[in-house]
Each structure stands twice: as structure tokens, then as C-alpha cells.
Amino acid sequence: MRFRPFRELIPPEVAVARLLRAVRPVARVETVPLTEAADRLAAATLRADRPIPGTDRASWDGYAVRSSGTRAASARRPLELRLRGDRFAEAAGGSRLGPGEAVAVATGAALPTGADAVAIFEEVERRGEYLRLTRSVRAGERVARRGEDFARGDRLTRAGAPLTPARIGALAMFGHTTVTVRARPRVAIVSNGNELVAPGARLGPGQIYDANSSALAAIVRAAGGTPVVYPPAPDDPRRLRRLLRAAARASDLLLVTGGSSVGERDLLPGIFAAEGRLLFHGIAVRPGKPTLAARVDGKLWLGLPGHPTSGLLNMFWLGLPVLRRAAGREGPGWVEGWALMGERAVALTEGLSTVVPLRRGADGRVYSTFRSSSAISSLAGAEAFTVLPPGGRPVRRNDRVRVRYLLPPLGRGLPAPNG
Question: Domains in the chain, please, with CATH?
Fold first, then answer.
């Protein structure tokens, strides 16, 4: 068995910068139903073509009145108004309210001409066809003014911004049934190794199920992409090269796990270099040192270690910002803060940064979940991570560390101020 040494180990921040320079947001757009548009990114800025409400409307069940005619109303000298019918939300305009009159209105009903306020029903005494007011009503009270929600020209969506439930509701309010959004980047996922079998198949001697593809697909979806998972590829250079070419042609970005190191059957370095421009092979980080990337025909190919924790943890600090850039999403997928380490010491390595998966404790501290590079359970419960510098003394309990808290759905974001 032969081994080839890494040529150069680049710092983690350099690896991230190179990948971000090599990837561009997907330019394609597509039209989707509003009911399927949640959290998609709007492809264009849309504006209101008319005011909403289109006329002054009651914002409360009660009685439409002329505010100027209620100024003398008080508990000692109630004001009596004559009731002139009622109006529901679907009623058209046309009626006019005269002095000393009131009209019963349901929430959402257009005010009759002349009315400028609503006396809420809880504060009105009704006696047959008359009302008794015991206080004055201010102009505009319990009224949604014309254009109060949206004026003509107001922005409904901003190009590139996520479509929230409120934005989707606003589009529906203006009669839209669909919306044009940015297409999600298609991300091909290929696991490499003779020992790998797709979940659900029968295991043979020495074989294991491919866990990386499913886990990577979850991260791709969380970052706004569409994963396309291929069957595990064998350690055959010709077959692997053909598969990677085909997967890359049908996608915007290629993720490959396994075969990224320096062993005899680590085929990715040779294939990546032959297919395009190698951006790097080897990062000065643990776990995850055997990581490589290339730019091939304008597309990014990223090769990750086959060990589950190494590959997935690399996706948090390295792959997640890249996927979000391809999806047109702002930010790296985490927010930064500070926290105290829990009871577990973390040893540092000379020349290598250390990435530590973290969970939050009930005491407000953060605790390492790392067990080993090959144990996917190392990331069970992890919702944040820290990148520690090379060398130096171990990080111990109550040491203050910079923490990157993963955003939903991968984590919960920043903790509350009290921890």
C-alpha cells in the first residue's frame, strides 16, 4: 500500500475564501405556487398596484359615526344617535351617514360616506333603533384608513429576500397565485468506496451502509439547495471519473465523500486535478484535513473525507457558506457569539486548527460532543461549533471561546441572554 504526502496544507480561512470566490449564485428562476413558496427567494421586486384597504374600513365590530358629532358625549350626558341599518365586509359603498346617525358595521366593512370613526359595540348601549354613547369618539378610532396597509407602489417583495408567511400573504392579497423565485442549486452527492452500499440493500462481507449521502443531503436542503444523491461509487478510476463527470453535468455543484486523502485508493486528487483547476488539497484543520476542491468547467467540485464526523463537520464551517452562496442566501448559516467551555478539556495540535462540535448545557456553557472522526454520533446533539487556533495549551472549563451557533434548521441560533 502506497501513500502520497500532502503538498501543502492551507489555513481554514484561506480554504473558505477560495471556495467562495469559485462559486456564484444560481441565475435560473422558476415560478411556483404561493402555497409552495415559503422561504424561497424572490426573483424580482414586486410592488403594490393599488392601495389596500381600497377605502376606509372598520377595524372593529361596532358603529360607524361622525366623530365631530360625539364631542359632547359623556357618562353624565349620554349622546343618542339614530341607527340607520348595518354593513358587512362584503358591502359596496354608496350610502351616506347624516348628522346624529350611526350605522352598525362588522370588522372589515367599508365606512359609509361621512363616517370617520367607529364606536366599539362594548361601549355602546343600544335601545331599539337608537344608540347611547357615554364618551366621545376620536376621528380615525377603530378605522383602517385607505392605503394604511399598502399604498400604491409599496414594496411587496424584494429581489433575493426570503418569502416569509407575511410576504406570501401580501402577494395573495393582491391576487397573485404564483411567484417567480430563484431556482435552488442542484447539488450532486457521490460517496466513494468499495465498502459502501446504499441503505436498504443487502450487506455483503466487509460492507457498510453509506450514511454520508443522506446526511449531506440534509445539509444541502437546509442551505437552500436540492440534493441529487447518486449510488455509491467503487474505487475504480475510470468508472468513478465517468460518474463524476455525468453528475457534474447535471448539477450546479458536486460533493464527493471518500477517496480524498493520500492513500493508494484515494482517487479524488488525481481525478480533480485532471478534470480542472485544483484549488487546494489538504487543509490545516482537524478533523477534516483530507479535503480538496477544484473548479471544473465553471463548476465547483468539493471532495470531503469519508469519515462521517470529518466530512459533516467540514460542511458546517466550509461547505455551508458555499452552499448558501450558490443558493443566493445571505450569511454563512450561523451567528457568532461567546460562551464558556464546560468541564471537558480540548487538546490543540501544533500547526492545525481544531474544529469542535458543541452542544449547549443547561448552565449556559458549551460542551464538546466530539468522540472520533469516524463516529457520526459525535454530531448528535451538536448545534454549534468553534474553530480553535493551532497549538497552545488545551482549552479547559470556563475558558471563553468564540462560538458559531448554527441557524435553523441545523441549530437554534444565538442563545437567550441568560443562556
Answer: 12-27+183-327 (3.40.980.10), 30-52+159-182 (3.90.105.10), 57-144 (2.170.190.11), 334-406 (2.40.340.10)
